[in-house]
Fold this protein.
Amino acid sequence: MAVSPVLSPKPNPPGTKATTNASKAKALAILNHSRSVSSPIAPSAATTPGDGGQDLAEQMNDEVRRQFVSGSRLGEGTYAIVYRGHFRSDPSKLVAIKKMKLNAEFKDGITLDSIREMRHLCELDHPNIIKLYAVFTTKDQNISLVLEHLPRGDLEGLWKDHSIMYGGADIKSWSNMLCQAVWFCHESRVLHRDIKGNNLLIAADNTLKLADFGLARGFADPGRPMTSNVITRFYRPPELLLGSQHYGGCVDIWSTACVIAELALRDFFLPSETDLAQLSVITDVFGIPTETDWPGISSLRHWEVNFKSAAPKRPQPLSFWRQRLPLLGDDGIDLLRGMMAMDPAKRLSAEQVLKHAYWTNYPRPTKKEDLPRQGDGEKKMGEDLKRAGGELESGRTDKVARKLNFG
Amino acid sequence: MKLTEDDLYRRSSQYKHWCFTPSKLALLRQKTNIQASERVKANVARQRAQRAKNLDTTSASDSERANTPGVENGADGASGNGGAVGDKEVDCLTVAEEMRLVDKFCETALELGNFIKVPAEVTATTIQYLRRFYLYNSPMTYEGQNIARATMFIACKTEGWHIPSSDYAAKFANVTQEQVLAPEHLIIQALRFNLEVRHPFRGLKGAHVELGEMVKGTYVPLEWDKRTGTQIQSEILKLPKRAGGAPMNLSESDFRKRLEYDYGVASNILKTSAQLTDTYFHYTPSQIMLAAHLLADEPLTLFLLATKVPPPSPIYSKTVDTIRACAAKLSSHRSYTDSSTSLEDKEARDKKEKAEVLAIIKKLRQCRDPDKMDLVKLNEAHKRDAVHDGELDERKAKRRRLDRENAQKEADEFWGPELPKNGAK
């Protein structure tokens, strides 16, 4: 008997002890059966009791991983590598596999970006939000997100590409898809906090999809502070630039309006070189609000430095808007100004935005299938998905935003 | 154009992946238990076999993994009776015993949360992660203390309370950063990468605010409800304190005190009993919230519900039944009866509880999976496998570099070295 364990592959030599639970015994027998080949001496069998020595969770993970086939590399950035892939069961169904890199600088395990993106995309299922099909880990403990394949580039690429012509009805169509995505996020109590042209990807059927939830978070309970250092600078609303730590969906609405204006302008709407300059670019258009325009503004953290002794500035008149954004029409301009009210409390909510007359007025938004489109945008998708949030296209990275701890 | 709570909940990962009927839940736990027991037995047997072999051949080969924690507890490793004692079958934990342990881990997590002072929802998320984790893993495989600490660290990250792992580890005695981080992948994988947990806390706050409006007379009833705000106010002030009690007529300010009291009781139930039972697996956050409120103040909760669903509707009675069932589950936990139990009874009960859990922990020592004892080493081994690939690449790169340098050298020998640039000597 002393040698029997060496020879017997079974951990449970028959006859040593009667198993008490009948159903359990049956299950054990099945497991034993499937394991009869392995030998405890071979090193490979050390963790191989039939199930490959795997936890149930590992088995599930492998099942998920096997559903997808990874193909050529589409792009690589500091935080992720993006591969083209497809469903094993249906090779015509394409996916983008975003493999998150382990960040050497971040000493605390899985990065907060990955965590935020996983947490929120798992919950958000909407035609205008990038779909997360699955998540799995590879052997080297890298998390891979299996995302919708969106091969037609991004919105910023679209307005930058001057070979493409588009008009007011097309802008209305894209803007509407964007606003629906934002509305859905807010209804689901999620703040995106990084809405901008190159986070808006375009699917093969021309549907616009909001992507990159690396800076997203749930709505905070009233009174609990959040970081004001989010959203790529050009799209950052004045209250964040003034250091507000309590905010809601209104910050995304500002960014959304910037994107719509960009589409109509075919240029950045409020570009600047520094955070300080950003505030003055904004006030050049919207004026410097007084305590009457925006009750509570003077209690914001950075108000004193920026506005206390600044010379008064008046907002631009309607003629300025008509001249700059003729493609939007008066109703479009009215919507945009509602979305860009300096006082966040006066800004339109996502729901109010969708109820605005602009959407139903003439011209009707272009049907999806008739929208102008870019040629090969697959590479662009790779570029966009690998990028970290808060980064500008030109590579001027807003590094500060990344390094802070997002509350 | 509003999404209802129900629409949102049905799209959530909590509903899709973490909602079970009681029988399904039991089956899953049984499956996990069988698999873990199997593995413990297999691994212990393998170890014993190895030990017996080592005894035979005196000089064990180096290739064999010396991963045998059973050996050092000299008791049964004494040379004379090596194999014979080893043949005794491992007595594994039952599902019920595992559940007692998981409950214990969750209680510990509750204390842990208080100890490191994180907000209640971080602790609650930790506990729900733990409960989810142990649906697919057994305490025999992964021991609770390390897992609970690592899980709380993850919950801090997901709930936006990130603390650097070094600071986090420093809050405990003898805990390293590696110990906190090592099981991270293991845990997140078992959570199926679903990091969002929907809690009933915010719902309770909402109900509290709304009840306050009703008491003030400023509540605006739903469309089908033909009562005015003032009517609702006079009705609510007359509500009896207990089900079946005599109608009262409290003043607005007294009723406000009642609301505060109810909120406190319900909130406490949500932070304890709701976490320490299986309620999240069976009920929606709003059902749990209403059940806790029902336990705090039944007439008021039913009144609130009747402003949302007309009582003649079959949905009303169905909802009440569900809430009652949930309330029964919540009140079955011993933390619920704490306030109404006499001190001696409580002490006796806690003592018994403690003794039982200790007995299970003692039993656990005999049936731990020897392969999964040291999570830090396990994680390093995982990473080593992965880094291995990288090393190969590095070697390749080095060879290419040497080739390139050699080619350069050969070219130099043939053509002579590069000529000095203009101006240089």
The mean pLDDT of chain B is 85. Chain B touches chain A through 69 residues (CB under 8 Å). The longest helix of chain B spans residues 375-415.
